[in-house]
């Protein structure tokens, strides 16, 4: 490659794919969590991730992932990142990646939402609210879904994160109406009395509790970024920005030129393949949420592992299609250990894997002190100034020493 900068950067966030408890996991009651480690153990050595393996997925762990041994010569650079934000939600993780750590904890509701808030939503929607407690989405829908279908009530629930989730059957409450209700709820929790990270629409379908399925028509109404993110700086500098998956929702569309909604991880990878065929200069930011929504919260390590193997196969196509002036960065926004207690996100370190066909060296990026190092690297690559949060690792990627 003749120039210092990569023409295109593809940043893929494997939502919830943590790689071991963070140093501050005790503050979150998450000591012992290890998403990748426990998935590997559940597969008893049968977890096959050849592409992630050769990128160095196991290399900076004290203990290799069972079934995914460390490699002597990774194809690029590997490391882990630690989070400094006050929470462990997707919003916290993504905002921090883009140079905007969340320093003040957002509101959580371990005893359900206050009656004042519930009554306002009931009055606006002209519907009764049921549930109103922390709970697994699939569990509360199985429990209350048939009642919701009969009455037209709204199922409201939360989790250990700063989220307000509203579920309803698509045949009972049309999506347009459900979105409108959630948008109103969003307007109530932007502070100062209540400040909630995400209001999430959770539509489902199915004839009865044994067959309810949450659909891809989920929508996250996220708290608008409270400051400039690296995406804003890139867009202001006329660097093309593309969001795939829930990226557009997480940043409320700010700093994003083009956004694509995902129906699934594989649909998201279809979007990645399509964008890779386009001729542009800029940053493509991707979130693949199935690991989290389908398997992490449901504490299903076997399904989680299969989703990882399915992604790994698609990753092979991405690696094959990368151009010399492309850079691929893989990471995660938090953990969601399917082998751990509870049903919530887990405070973990996350993988950091970087590769370009033009690389003439490989090695460790070490333990990055903040997720913001990711965004700082993207800004550095496009010669764009940001808010000075995070440390770029671009120079390390541009090492000219030949791979041994």
UniProtKB/TrEMBL annotation:
<feature type="binding site">
    <location>
        <position position="15"/>
    </location>
    <ligand>
        <name>Mn(2+) 1</name>
    </ligand>
</feature>
<feature type="domain" description="Metalloenzyme">
    <location>
        <begin position="7"/>
        <end position="384"/>
    </location>
</feature>
<comment type="pathway">
    <text>Carbohydrate degradation; 2-deoxy-D-ribose 1-phosphate degradation; D-glyceraldehyde 3-phosphate and acetaldehyde from 2-deoxy-alpha-D-ribose 1-phosphate: step 1/2.</text>
</comment>
<dbReference type="Pfam" id="PF01676">
    <property type="entry name" value="Metalloenzyme"/>
</dbReference>
<feature type="binding site">
    <location>
        <position position="333"/>
    </location>
    <ligand>
        <name>Mn(2+) 1</name>
    </ligand>
</feature>
<comment type="function">
    <text>Isomerase that catalyzes the conversion of deoxy-ribose 1-phosphate (dRib-1-P) and ribose 1-phosphate (Rib-1-P) to deoxy-ribose 5-phosphate (dRib-5-P) and ribose 5-phosphate (Rib-5-P), respectively.</text>
</comment>
<keyword id="KW-0479">Metal-binding</keyword>
<dbReference type="GO" id="GO:0009117">
    <property type="term" value="P:nucleotide metabolic process"/>
</dbReference>
<dbReference type="InterPro" id="IPR017850">
    <property type="entry name" value="Alkaline_phosphatase_core_sf"/>
</dbReference>
<feature type="binding site">
    <location>
        <position position="297"/>
    </location>
    <ligand>
        <name>Mn(2+) 2</name>
    </ligand>
</feature>
<protein>
    <recommendedName>
        <fullName>Phosphopentomutase</fullName>
        <ecNumber>5.4.2.7</ecNumber>
    </recommendedName>
</protein>
<dbReference type="GO" id="GO:0008973">
    <property type="term" value="F:phosphopentomutase activity"/>
</dbReference>
<dbReference type="GO" id="GO:0006015">
    <property type="term" value="P:5-phosphoribose 1-diphosphate biosynthetic process"/>
</dbReference>
<keyword id="KW-0963">Cytoplasm</keyword>
<feature type="binding site">
    <location>
        <position position="292"/>
    </location>
    <ligand>
        <name>Mn(2+) 2</name>
    </ligand>
</feature>
<dbReference type="GO" id="GO:0043094">
    <property type="term" value="P:metabolic compound salvage"/>
</dbReference>
<keyword id="KW-0464">Manganese</keyword>
<dbReference type="InterPro" id="IPR024052">
    <property type="entry name" value="Phosphopentomutase_DeoB_cap_sf"/>
</dbReference>
<dbReference type="GO" id="GO:0030145">
    <property type="term" value="F:manganese ion binding"/>
</dbReference>
<dbReference type="GO" id="GO:0006018">
    <property type="term" value="P:2-deoxyribose 1-phosphate catabolic process"/>
</dbReference>
<feature type="binding site">
    <location>
        <position position="345"/>
    </location>
    <ligand>
        <name>Mn(2+) 2</name>
    </ligand>
</feature>
<comment type="similarity">
    <text>Belongs to the phosphopentomutase family.</text>
</comment>
<dbReference type="InterPro" id="IPR010045">
    <property type="entry name" value="DeoB"/>
</dbReference>
<dbReference type="InterPro" id="IPR006124">
    <property type="entry name" value="Metalloenzyme"/>
</dbReference>
<dbReference type="GO" id="GO:0000287">
    <property type="term" value="F:magnesium ion binding"/>
</dbReference>
<feature type="binding site">
    <location>
        <position position="334"/>
    </location>
    <ligand>
        <name>Mn(2+) 1</name>
    </ligand>
</feature>
<keyword id="KW-0413">Isomerase</keyword>
<dbReference type="GO" id="GO:0005829">
    <property type="term" value="C:cytosol"/>
</dbReference>
């Amino acid at each position: 490659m003749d120039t210092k900068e990569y023409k295109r950067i593809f940043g893929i966030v494997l939502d919830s794919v943590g790689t071991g408890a963070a140093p501050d996991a005790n503050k979150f009651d998450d000591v012992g969590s290890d998403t990748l480690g426990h998935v590997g153990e559940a597969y008893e050595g049968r977890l096959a991730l050849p592409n992630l393996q050769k990128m160095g997925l196991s290399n900076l762990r004290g203990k290799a992932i069972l079934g995914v041994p460390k490699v002597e010569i990774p194809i690029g650079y590997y490391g882990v990142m630690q989070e400094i934000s006050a929470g462990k939600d997707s919003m916290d993780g993504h905002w921090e990646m883009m140079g905007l750590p969340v320093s003040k904890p957002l509101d959580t509701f371990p005893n359900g939402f206050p009656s004042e808030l519930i009554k306002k939503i009931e009055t606006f929607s002209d519907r009764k609210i049921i549930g109103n407690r922390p709970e697994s989405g699939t569990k509360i829908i199985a429990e209350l879904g048939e009642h919701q279908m009969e009455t037209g009530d709204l199922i409201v629930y939360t989790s250990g994160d700063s989220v307000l989730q509203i579920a309803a059957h698509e045949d009972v409450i049309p999506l347009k109406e459900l979105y409108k209700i959630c948008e109103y709820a969003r307007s109530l929790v932007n502070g100062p009395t209540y400040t909630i990270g995400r209001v999430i629409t959770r539509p489902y379908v199915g004839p009865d509790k044994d067959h309810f399925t949450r659909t891809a028509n989920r929508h996250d109404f996220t708290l608008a970024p409270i400051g400039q993110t690296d995406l804003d700086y890139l867009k202001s500098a006329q660097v093309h920005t593309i969001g795939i998956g829930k990226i557009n929702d997480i940043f409320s569309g700010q700093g994003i030129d083009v956004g694509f909604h995902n129906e699934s991880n594989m649909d998201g990878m279809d979007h990645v393949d399509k964008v890779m065929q386009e001729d542009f200069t800029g940053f493509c930011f991707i979130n693949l949420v199935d690991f989290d929504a389908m398997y992490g919260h449901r504490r299903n390590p076997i399904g989680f592992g299969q989703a990882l193997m399915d992604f790994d196969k698609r990753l092979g196509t991405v690696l094959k299609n990368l151009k010399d002036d492309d850079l691929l960065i893989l990471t995660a926004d938090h953990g969601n250990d399917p082998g751990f207690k509870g049903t919530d996100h887990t405070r973990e370190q996350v993988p950091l894997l970087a590769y370009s066909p033009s690389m003439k060296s490989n090695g460790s990026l070490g333990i990055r002190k903040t997720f913001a190092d990711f965004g700082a690297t993207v800004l550095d690559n496009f010669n764009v100034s940001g808010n000075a949060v995070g440390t770029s690792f671009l120079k390390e990627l541009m090492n000219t020493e030949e791979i041994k």
